[in-house]
Design goal:
The chain is α/β, with parallel strands linked by helices and 256 residues long. It is 48% helix and 14% strand. α1 packs across α8 and α4 packs parallel to α6.
Length: 256
């Protein structure tokens, strides 16, 4: 049986690596990205048999139309991966950052819900073990200085996915939350500071796919960052503030 996988943010980084991985497994793919030329190039590299949709995940009607087309071509997906995300430093004291703040929240939270929404009825009807996968971040575990919007968006994504997991449980649809640490992608390439346990994106994609196949409810990848994440959760506020007040910050600007 051919696996059917729908992936947002597929034109670069983690999404591209996941597309390459699942194509290698013989899957039929639905690929979402904002840059049509990158999607077309990726599709050609993967054999040209996949469905490509150039759109922004903040555009719910466009996502709905893409889902309808995918369903008509391939049927209900086995896996839907809401991977699209943007990141930038934000400081609330600068009013010009408010537009950036909204863009990050819309893409990383609303875009995730808009990705899943048009597929859930078909996945319920089809039955079987299916997966809704949300890519969160360790940045959502505790608020990081200079990253109010990004940390808030990923914290919201984690909570949203937990709620969705409970809602989907009666239907046999597993919701998988993956919180990456530092992965070698264009998004992390702009970070001008040391990134512990940095993981090549191809290895990350393999580990993500393993967690998805197992139906893992929540995981941090790489595992070393999972240990760090657990420790961060336990730190009292006074100690966390002392340790992270001067942590390196993401550069401010438009999200990418």
């Amino acid at each position: 049986m051919t696996l059917k996988v729908f992936i947002t943010g597929a034109s670069s980084g983690i999404g591209e690596a996941l597309a390459v991985y699942y194509a290698g497994e013989g899957a039929k793919l639905g690929l979402i990205g904002r840059r049509s030329e990158f999607l077309a190039g990726l599709n050609q590299r993967l054999g040209g048999q996949h469905a490509c949709y150039a759109l922004d995940v903040c555009d719910a009607p466009a996502l709905h139309a893409a889902a309808v087309d995918f369903l008509s071509r391939f049927g209900a997906p086995d896996i839907v991966i809401a991977n699209a995300g943007v990141s930038a430093g934000t400081l609330t004291e600068y009013e010009e950052d408010l537009d950036v703040f909204r863009r990050i929240m819309d893409t990383n939270v609303f875009g995730m819900a808009a990705t899943f929404a048009p597929f859930i009825p078909a996945m319920k009807k089809a039955g079987g073990e299916r997966r809704l996968v949300g890519i969160a971040s360790v940045a959502g575990i505790r608020g990081l200085p200079g990253a109010e919007a990004y940390s808030a968006s990923k914290a919201a994504a984690i909570s949203y996915l937990e709620s969705l997991r409970l809602e989907m449980r009666p239907y046999g649809i597993k919701v998988v939350t993956i919180a990456p640490g530092y992965i070698e992608t264009p998004m992390t390439a702009v970070n001008g500071y040391k990134m512990p346990f940095l993981l090549p994106v191809e290895k990350a994609a393999q580990r993500f796919a393993g967690a998805i196949a197992r139906g893992t409810t929540y995981t941090v990848i790489p595992w070393q960052m999972g240990v760090v994440a657990k420790l961060l959760r336990l730190l009292p506020n006074w100690l966390y503030d002392r340790l992270f007040a001067n942590a390196p910050r993401k550069p401010r600007g438009l999200p990418g």
